[in-house]
Amino acid sequence: MAMSGGKDDGKPMMEMNTTPLIDVLLVLLIMFIITIPVQTHAVKLDLPVDSPDQPPPDIDPVKNRLGITPTNQILWNDTPVSLTQVETYLAQTKSMVPEPELQFQPDAVSAYLTVDRVLAKIKDSGVSKFGFVGNEQYSSFNKASRLPN
What we know:
Layout (H helix, E strand, L loop, with lengths): L18 H17 L27 E6 L5 E3 L2 E3 L1 H13 L5 E6 L5 H14 L4 E3 L10 H4 L3
Parallel strand pairs: 1-4, 4-5
Antiparallel strand pairs: 1-2, 2-3
Helix pairs in contact: 2-3
C-alpha cells in the first residue's frame, strides 16, 4: 500500500520533489559552518586592579557618615578622626557639587560635650544636607533597667 501525493491516472507527476534539494542544502550549510575559521580577534584592555592596602577615599561624593562611639571617639566613614579633621572634611564636602549628604549618628552613651562640639562644627561649616541616623536607639529609655540594684 503506497502513499502518493498526486493522482494515479497514469500521467507524469508535475511537482518537483524538494526533499533531496533540502537535504543537500542542509549538508552544504553544515559544511560551511564547520569550515568557517574561529574568530581570534581580541581587544586587549588594561583593567584597574583592586589593591587591598589602598585606603578608601576620605570623602564619599554621595553620602558621608559621621559617628561618635561610646568611648567618645569621632568616626568619619568608620575611620577615627580628630575634630580639626572633621572641620577640614566638612569644608571639602561643602565645596563639592552636588553636595554629599552628611549622616550623623552619635552613640546613646557618648558624652554630650563631644556630640555638642561636633554639632557646632557641622553648623559652622554651613552643610545643608544633614540628617540624624539611628534615632531608633532612643525610642525607649529603659529607665528601670538603668537603676542600680
